[in-house]
Amino acid sequence: MKHDQMRRFLRRLYAGIAAAVLMTGFTSIAAEVDMPETNVKTESFRRDLSGSAGSICGKVLGETKETIEAAHEAYLAQIEERKAEEEAKRLAEAQMASVPVSSADEELLAALIFCEAGNQPYEGQVAVGAVVMNRVRSASYPNTVREVIYQSGQFTPAMTGWLDSVLASGGYTDSARQAAQDALAGGNPVGECLYFSTGGYGMQIGDHYFH
């Protein structure tokens, strides 16, 4: 609901409450006040009735207005929170898009995913790719996919030569290739995790623990 719509809604609500409370006030007071005898002037009775009803109406409207204003403030705060979330998401997407990636990087990542998680659920395959991309964006690691994957002592398939064999033969699966594409596009089920292993601690997906 936009601000002008909210204002129109509040005006209608105030008017409806005022009418309802005013009628209730008149009914309640009429029931409690003795009907005027011949020695009570009608005009005086009307003034008393109007003043009492107005007091009740003002009190209820004041309390209702405070409640509605508080709800309105909460609504505006929610809008600001959503704006902040959207801006954070936009910045994250922009950061992902800033990582230079080539088709060779995609194939290399697919091969690594196949070697490390080819027998794991699809989410686990994307998670391995996400770890690589987290490292690319981290100041603690190289800033390219290739350098991260071939960094000394990091990924066993790269150290044993299995990765190069799979890459040369195109032996990775379609699932691994799709997982690589998803990870490169920002798919990330493990947050800021930079490591994974088949034991230890962290978020478990399939046989791997991510931390």
UniProtKB/TrEMBL annotation:
A Pfam family the protein falls into: Hydrolase_2
All residue ranges annotated as the Cell wall hydrolase SleB domain in the record: 120-198
Keyword terms: Hydrolase, Signal
Superkingdom classification of source: Bacteria
Entries under InterPro entries matching the protein: Cell_wall_hydrolase_SleB, SleB_dom1
Keyword Hydrolase in record: yes
Statement: the UniProt record of this protein carries the keyword ATP-binding: no
GO function terms (MF aspect): hydrolase activity
Residues spanning the signal sequence: 1-30
Gene3D superfamilies: Cell wall hydrolase SleB, domain 1
Name listed for the protein in its UniProt record: Cell wall hydrolase
